[in-house]
Amino acid sequence: MVDKIREIEEVNQFILDLPKDIQNITVTLRKIILNSSPELKEEFKWSMPNYSYNGLVCYLQTAKKHVNIGFHKGDELQDKDVNKLLQGTGKTLRHIRIKKMEEVQPEAFTSLIQEAVRLNEK
């Protein structure tokens, strides 16, 4: 159950302005992120929702035809990515691209988010 208090107005507004299908994916991913850890703090930075705990953990980046859930320390998550969902070749960033609701994998995403939170506890 998502704690509405942790949802911030800028992100609510940002989501309202998205196309319907992208909006649905974003809302679902936001719930998964906030439910993954009570520690995560929602922020609106760099024109997108970001989630932090002891530093940046993950973000939601929307486009016309997909939503990326990105990880700031994604390079360190790759060995925990049993489903091989992470993409990208940046120095540290990795993301999962979701084009339709059927591609949302709550358990796999939750486990990666929790792992990303743990990285920030070190």
Describe the structure.
With 122 residues, this protein is of the alpha+beta class. The protein has one domain: Aspartate Aminotransferase, domain 1, CATH 3.90.1150.200. The chain is 35% helix and 22% strand. The protein has helices at 9-16, 20-36, 74-77, 106-119; strands at residues 41-45, 48-52, 56-62, 67-71, 94-98. It has a 5-stranded antiparallel beta sheet with strand order 1-2-3-4-5. Strand 2 (48-52) and strand 3 (56-62) form a beta hairpin. Helix 2 crosses helix 4. The longest helix is centred in the first third of the chain and has 17 residues, at 20-36. Residues 25-117 form the YdhG-like domain. It comes from Paenibacillus sedimenti. This is DUF1801 domain-containing protein.
Summarize this structure as a short list of keywords or feature phrases.
single chain, 122 residues, alpha+beta, Aspartate Aminotransferase, domain 1, five-stranded antiparallel beta sheet, 4 helices, 5 strands, globular
